[in-house]
Specification:
The protein is an alpha+beta fold. It contains 14 helices and twelve strands. 38% of the residues lie in helices and 15% in strands. The strands form two sheets. Strands 1, 4, 5, 6, 7, 8, 9, 10, 11 and 12 form a ten-stranded mixed β-sheet that branches. Strands 2-3 form a two-stranded antiparallel ribbon.
């Protein structure tokens, strides 16, 4: 093949600066001495571990719905808390996505990521089962193989679709998923009573239609639903768009009233530490305090021991900032978690208590304290029960 020198030079001009930019070090801030006081804490179930799987969307929403069952049923004894099967939902989601992928001639992202409303679709259409009934076939999820194989499978079927699609491809795909995750039971017993997945859902008091997803961006009108433009929203679920102050007041009031929330957010920020804290760090303030080395790799440990590390100054996000960050892709759809409580630090700053799905990791054994500023700036969306909304907001959104 003849090499086009000019084309190569043009490509290099684009790619080389990008590569250099991508290799710049990520700032690592020394850990501040946080002291948290709990203001409100709603019940949650035990910390789970999604391990080597991209299923935060399921773990976080199942965690949220388990707290909803506790609230709805008025369960007081932690020994009676529900433990629902994540893999029941994940397996069905794979099957539904494969079907849509083929119907759309491959014009759909096919991968393991998804969002909270996906869980509601599965529960509404198929029901739910306890973890003990369908625990999955791995002690800890490791989905590299199934992700690669299922993607290759549907891509192969799609490439051959011009010749016609067989009537058996779906059965083959479903068998592959069932082999990896386990087969969903038609019936099962809990405390001596026989259920189907649908009747068990109803017994738990879960009504998928009672849940709403809220977001806040200016490229669509407020108080109207729109389909959030993120790749993992493969079902095309709409979110209600509300102003930022309404989003934040709704969340705070919901937690204060005993509700929790499923939370989609960006955790690639330097202030979202791997040790249980999330703050929206003002890097300009950090950059002016100390050396360039301290800015990029943290302070010299010898120096750090001389005085306590102060809590970093935060950005106070605005509606305009949120939109800019979403538009320029510095706010990304990274991770799903559950917001379940409110706390404050020693300076009186408000934090939300967050249940993660990375096992009992970090300083707080799987719990994160995320500042109100971080939630305001980096929330992609939240899911709450419709009863958590004010009467005025329900009226504006047309929700009964």
């Amino acid at each position: 093949m003849k090499t086009n020198v000019f084309a190569f030079a043009a490509i290099a001009a684009v790619l080389i600066p990008s590569a250099l930019f991508a290799q710049q070090p990520r700032p690592q801030l020394p850990e501040a001495d946080y002291q948290f006081t709990v203001i409100k804490e709603n019940p949650i179930t035990s910390i789970k571990n999604q391990a080597s799987s991209s299923t935060c969307w399921c773990f976080s929403t199942i965690a949220y719905l388990e707290s909803e069952i506790i609230r709805i049923k008025g369960i007081k004894d932690a020994a009676q808390y529900p433990d629902l099967s994540e893999m029941f939902v994940v397996a069905q989601s794979y099957k539904d996505r494969a079907d849509k992928y083929i119907r759309l001639d491959g014009d759909l992202r096919f991968g393991p990521g998804s969002e909270a409303d996906d869980v509601l679709h599965v529960i509404e259409e198929c029901g739910i089962v306890p973890q003990s009934v369908m625990p999955g076939k791995q002690t800890l999820p490791n989905h590299g193989e199934i992700d690669a194989v299922t993607k290759a499978y549907v891509e192969t079927i799609n490439k051959r679709s011009s010749r016609g699609v067989s009537t058996t491809w779906k059965a083959g795909f479903d068998a592959l998923v069932d082999t990896f995750f386990g087969t969903a039971p038609e019936t099962f017993e809990v405390n001596g009573k026989t259920y189907t997945p649908a009747s068990y859902r109803d017994e738990l008091g879960l009504v998928p239609g009672d849940y709403v997803t809220l977001t806040s961006f200016t490229h669509h009108p407020f108080y109207k639903p729109f389909v959030l433009e993120i790749g993992d929203n493969w079902r095309g679920d709409p979110s209600y768009n509300v102003p930022l102050d309404v989003l934040m007041s709704t969340l705070k009031t919901a937690v204060e009233k005993g509700f929790t929330a499923a939370w989609g957010s960006d955790v690639s920020e330097v202030g979202f530490t791997r040790n249980g804290v999330g703050v929206l760090v003002d890097m300009k303030a950090v950059a002016t305090a100390g050396s360039d080395q301290a800015r990029w790799v943290g302070a010299d440990p010898a120096q750090a021991q001389k005085a306590p590390v102060e809590i970093p100054k935060e950005i106070v996000p605005t509606q305009e900032m949120r939109q800019e960050w979403f538009d320029n892709k510095t706010t990304t759809d990274d991770h799903g978690m559950q917001i379940y409580g409110i706390a404050k630090d020693q300076n009186g700053t408000l934090y939300y208590m967050v249940k993660n799905s990375w096992g009992e990791s970090g300083k707080y054994k799987g719990i994160w304290y995320v500042s109100e500023n971080f939630v305001a700036g980096k929330t992609m969306d939240i899911m709450v029960h419709k009863d958590a909304l004010s009467k005025d907001l329900k009226k504006k959104l047309g929700i009964n």
